[in-house]
Hints:
Layout: E1 4-10, H1 16-27, E2 33-39, H2 46-56, E3 60-65, H3 71-81, E4 86-89, H4 101-109, E5 114-119, H5 127-143, E6 152-159, H6 160-168, H7 176-182, E7 187-192, H8 206-220, H9 223-253, H10 260-293, E8 300-303
Helix pairs in contact: 5-8, 9-10
The chain binds uridine-5'-diphosphate and magnesium ion.
Amino acid sequence: MDLLSIVVPCFNEEESVGIFLDEIQKTLFDRNYEVIFINDGSTDNTLANIKDLANSNQNVKYISFSRNFGKESAIYAGLKNASGDLVCLMDVDMQHPPSMLPEMIESISEGYDVVAARRISKKGEPMVKSFGSHMFYKIFNRISKLDLVEGATDYRVMTRPVVDAVLELSEYNRFSKGLFQWVGFETKWIDYENVERFAGKTTWSFWGLVGYSVEAIVAFTTVPLSISIFLGTVISAIAFIYLAFIIVKYLMYSDPVQGFATIMCALLLLGGIQLLSIGILGKYLEKTYKETKNRPIFIVKETNIDD
Length: 307
Ligand code: UDP
Ligand code: MG
């Protein structure tokens, strides 16, 4: 039987790891599988708990990072170390219901390359968060060539060719949702209702999500640069016409000093747009800078996987 690798990023999840493994065992009891826990620099007992699980269960593998590198890095490390013909990506907090796994695996055998879960309800989520995320999808899809599926989660089962394709994208600034979409392949979406976290708490704050959205846009489209060129052009054109108007007016009527308000408005507006444009430019420069440094995406401190 094909080996199924389940990749599970964990950051401060001491309460969840054991329960998660129990559920997986119940769901996949006679299947050939491995669970790869990635301990992303947890500061609680997550690693110790994972090691206990690994001692009593041969299917448990782990990779422990030297510090917190973020979920995107953990996903990359997990995919890189998964040896399965099928690879599943899952959160440890039960928000990705293990009960969906059999159906997902079944769909792969129907011939799909990827089967991914899509959240259709946002039950239990604050209004600002769901509205913000809705706006993010609208803007992202509008200005990038990718079409992200709203509600798409990282909960997915992929065949080996898809995993290899994602691993080929070894960029430092990783926005996995975009990368998964970018590689293509035939994807089946399975809908489910939002489930609340089993234990612990989410690491995402409102501003964290806003920042993440900006990163995602910068990683997948350069349209913001074009927008600043467009704004610059339109405003220069208007300024030029206005200048001609002022000159003509001066020649015809000479000029009593007036128009302080106009000057202030123009000054502030132009100053604002200039700063904004420099900021946008800076964002792209920052990404290029980080990419050229070519730093590793993660650093492993310990693992029980031998290469
Ligand atoms: N996670 C991680 N590194 C981080 C933050 C989160 O590996 O820096 C893991 C976390 O343990 C969980 C998954 O990523 O398994 C999703 O995190 P969380 O539940 O906080 O996100 P949400 O479900 O709220 O989107
Ligand atoms: Mg969660």
